[in-house]
Amino acid sequence: MSKLDGNERWKTKMLMSEHVDQYEQQEKGEDGSRTMLTNAERTMVRDLILLPYIDTMVSKSIEEIERSGNMLTRTYLMAGRYIQNRVMQDTYRLQKELKQRNIRVLADEQEDFLMYYKIFFRGYQERFGLTRDIMRTEISLRLTRYTSELGTVLKEHMK
User: Fold this and answer.
1) Cα 6 from Cα 16, distance rounded (Å)
2) Segment 50-59 mean pLDDT
3) Would you tell me the crossing angle of helices 132-158 and 73-100 to the nearest 10 degrees?
4) What is the DSSP string of 69-137?
5) What angle in degrees, to the nearest 10, is found between the helix axes of 132-158 and 39-67?
6) Beta-strand pair 124-131/114-121
7) What's 34's DSSP letter?
8) Pairing, β 103-110 against β 124-131
9) pLDDT attached to residue 157
């Protein structure tokens, strides 16, 4: 990356086509494949990191529901198991997709509010960090999406 990347002033400047070609060639490896992670791949890595946390949270909730004497225990258990099943499906899909792209993710270290992971991809290595606040927000958004999906499935089943 050059010093001008991310500098908004240079976006409107005219570039010569050979400079564009050189820049694009720098981003690609010798064999023409991409050497850097794309944003979509980073999102997949982030999701793969978060899904086990979601599974753990749902499992704990299912255990609490099983112990409670709630009248709707069976309904809550079915909803929890549906969400847990979707988490497992998404985890499997992401693992398969990342394996096809030759990307591996390993936990690295944990500091106070930051969790680091090592990403190995196409012969390169990168360090990826997530703060607890970001993780909490993303987990909440994902759980909301799963719950909404469950609501849609139930509505369609009732028709």
Assistant:
1) 19
2) 96
3) 120
4) --TTHHHHHHHHHHHHHHHHHHHHHHHHHHHHTTEEEEEEEE-SSEEEEEEEETTEEEEEEEEHHHHHH
5) 70
6) antiparallel
7) B
8) unpaired
9) 86
Using left for φ > 0, alpha for ψ between -120 and 50, and beta otherwise, residue 125 falls in: beta
Residue 50 CA to residue 57 CA, distance in Å, equals 11
Q: Are 105 and 91 in contact (CB under 8 A)?
A: no
pTM exceeds 0.85: no
Give the angle subtended at the CA of 37 by the CAs of 31 and 40, to the nearest 5°: 120
Give 100-126 pLDDT, tens digit per residue.
999 999 998 988 889 999 999 988 999
Mean pLDDT of 75-102: 95
What does the alpha-carbon distance between residue 136 and residue 111 come to, in Å, rounded to a whole number?
A: 16
Give the amino acid at 45.
V
